[in-house]
Specification:
Strand content: 5-15%
Number of strands: 3
Number of domains: 1
Radius of gyration: 26 Å
Distance between the termini: 63 Å
Shape: elongated
Structural class: mainly alpha
Mean pLDDT: 82
Low-confidence stretches: none
Length: 235
């Protein structure tokens, strides 16, 4: 008489599924907000390293073209064309404008990687559905978080403190920031390579053990996705 397969207790089954779902949800939240938080972090580094005020166009004054043809009694045209504004406020505004594109960008990466892994698993007769491929994709993107943190740390180290004044040339400030980014850009290819290889190893392991792919097909699929991400990073 063959041995009987032990039954799984319903409470234990649902508890395990809840824990699994909670981990996946935590990964989703972590990844979705990773790039926006990185943009915010860069803004914080710039605000910490750059102080002073700059001249900007007065938002409460109409354009010169409008004021030239306006009646002399128009009080708004008597306001100065430019006003001083704290550089920290400008940097915070610029970072805020990039948060939505960053959110859209990381969301697109998650969907792209999950879809690519699932297509590879489907081509090689994977044993699980898209949810499994999506989870494998999420775990493989964890190294990206460390890469973002390393980039912010390098920027903080190499960007020297500076002060700007209304008389400062914006071009000079931009050149100074660009010069500080040179060491970061030199390290970036190595950082990208390490991150891509780390992610590829996680994806290979996940495809082999969660989708049931062979070692060779899992390596080929993960390698193809790493190559795709690498090409997109160079664009």
């Amino acid at each position: 008489m063959p041995p009987r397969t032990p039954l799984v207790r319903p409470d234990r089954f649902f508890a395990e599924r809840a824990i699994y779902g909670g981990r996946v949800l935590a990964l989703v939240i972590l990844h979705v907000f990773s790039l926006p938080l990185a943009v915010w972090g860069v803004g914080q580094v710039l605000q910490a390293r750059i102080d002073g005020t700059v001249l900007v166009q007065n938002p409460n004054r109409p354009s010169e073209q409008f004021c030239e043809g306006a009646p002399t009694s128009m009080d708004m045209c008597d306001a100065p064309a430019h006003v001083e504004r704290n550089i920290d406020t400008l940097l915070a505004d610029q970072a805020g404008e990039l948060l939505a594109p960053a959110l859209l960008g990381i969301g697109s990466v998650i969907v792209l990687v999950g879809s690519a892994l699932h297509v590879g698993a489907w081509l090689f007769d994977g044993s699980s559905g898209f949810g499994t491929s999506f989870t494998v994709a999420l775990w493989g993107l964890v190294p990206l978080l460390f890469s973002l943190l390393a980039g912010i740390a390098l920027l903080y180290v190499f960007l020297d403190p500076s002060t700007v004044t209304p008389e400062s040339d914006p071009v000079v400030l931009a050149e100074r920031v660009q010069a500080a980014l040179v060491p970061v850009q030199q390290v970036q290819p190595l950082l990208t390579t390490v991150t891509a290889l780390w992610s590829g190893l996680i994806w290979r392991f996940g495809l082999q053990h969660k989708q049931g792919l062979t070692s060779g097909t899992a390596t080929a699929t993960a390698g193809a996705v790493v190559g795709l991400i690498w090409l997109l990073s160079l664009a």
